[in-house]
Amino acid sequence: MRWQKTTVSGGFILLIGCAILGNRLTTIENFTPIASTIAIANETRAHKIAFVDNSKDDRKSIQSCFDAVNLLSRHIHEDQETHGLRQCSLSLDDGVGPIDFPGLDDNLIQASFGGRRIFFMGDSTTKNLHNWLYRLLLRMHQKSPYNISLLSDMNLRDANSMVAGCGRNLVCDDPQSNRTELNNLHMRLKQDDCSNKKIYAGTYESMTDHEPEIIVANIGLWLLHFEARGRDRKVCAAENFIHYEHWLEDTLKRAEEVGAQALFFKTTNTICTDKYTGDYAKADKLYAMMDNETLLDCFNSLKANRQEDELSDEDIHNYCANGTFNNRGVVHLNQRLYKFVESHRNTASLSLHVFDDNIIKSCEYTGRGDARHYHPLNLVRIRLLAHLISCIE
Q1: Sign, Cα dihedral of 364, 368, 370, 376
Q2: Peptide bond before residue 145 is cis, with ω within 30 degrees of 0
Q3: What is the DSSP string of 18-66?
Q4: Most C-beta atoms within 10 A of its C-beta, which of 251, 340, 352, 380?
Q5: What distance in Å separates the CA atoms of residue 302 and residue 319, rounded to the nearest whole number?
Q6: Which domain of life is it from (predicted)?
Q7: The pairing of beta strand 118-122 with beta strand 181-182
Q8: Which sign, positive or negative, has the C-alpha torsion 136, 138, 141, 143?
Q9: All residues at 6 or more sequence positions from 93 whose CB lies less than 8 Å from its CB, including other chains
Q10: Could you report how far apart the first and last alpha carbons of the chain are, in Å?
Q11: CB of 38 within 8 A of CB of 177?
Q12: Cβ(121)–Cβ(252) below 8 Å
């Protein structure tokens, strides 16, 4: 890792070295991370899914492994508390199996993350995953008084209490990273302001500097709106929604250019709209019923700020109807994401896959007024990501 001075202006960028105050990032001029680094040695790559596929087609074999991880996700969803972190044996629908899935322990973490350069880019849902993984790696490096391997035989609430110090509550805070940068783990929080082209492009520059093996990316929630009803978006967000595939294409192209081994596009988080309060709750009801006045206000708001070479009237109508900050918008983006990955998987020079962590989610794991973050499930998400990475070896 090359140490660099980082200037932050006009928005929020997360490097491990950014100072954090409350729930927002503070801007730091010419900040240089402290010299100490954390390196998690790659002691073993043997602790992985015990999966046998006799196919001579490597891509088919890898896809079968990914299907096995989705099977594990469905198993976990049946009982997140009991199944989330424990080892298990399952069989695929076509009779392949049993497949042995290790639980979340230090062997799995070292096998999947040890010695790898991993780059996270996107919104807060990706940042949360990064921060929890950072917490685990940091505690392993510091030889924490508790044994990480204990997690693989614990209920989820107890594991969250041990790792994040959030007690036995289902909703716990996102652990913040220290002012120290991991040698092999990096997070780039793209600005939630697509009009700032320098910061927008800076994400790809940071990716190039980091030279990652694994990339995890998503921007979905930033694109969704309750325009004129409490969550206004800039016209460029509407553009990025309409042309979502352009961002997917650009990210894939950059990932291939830096020589990444795998690119995981994370799904946009499911939104539990019953947890909305205040303006968001009112807006959700209006947009869900396709209220004519609300849709007209949305159209007029975006059209008034549109430049000549930007969106057509048809594009704006599409965005107002389908880009909403509820599951209509989420499903719309995720369907397009799956279609893109399916159409590019066989031609990409790297392993391309959808990291669908929505499979494990349920509304009891997100807070009232939030509705879209699932902090208590981040340990499970780390486990699933570890298994996905093991598929590409």
Answers
A1: negative
A2: no
A3: --EETTEEPP-TTB---S-EE------S--S-B-----S-HHHHHHHHH
A4: 380
A5: 10
A6: Eukaryota
A7: unpaired
A8: negative
A9: none
A10: 23
A11: no
A12: no
The answer to whether 127 and 57 are in contact (CB under 8 A) is no
Tokens matching residue 14? 């997360």
Query: Which one-letter DSSP state was computed for residue 290?
Result: T
Beta strands of the chain (E only): which ranges?
20-21, 24-25, 37-38, 88-90, 99-101, 118-122, 181-182, 185-189, 214-218, 262-266, 351-355
Residue among 66, 99, 71, 101 at smallest CA distance from 86: 101
- Convert the pLDDT of each residue in 142-195 to its tens digit: 766 567 888 999 999 999 888 876 544 444 555 554 333 444 556 565 555 576
- Contact residues for 60 (Cβ-Cβ < 8 A; gap 6+): 53
pTM of the predicted model over 0.70: yes
Least Cα distance to 135 among 379, 381, 384, 385 occurs for: 379
Tell me how far apart the alpha carbons of residues 272 and 364 are, in angstroms, rounded to a whole number.
9
Q: Where are the domains of the chain?
A: 20-33+46-391
Taking each helix axis from N to C end, the angle separating 378-391 and 124-141, rounded to the nearest 10 degrees, works out to: 80
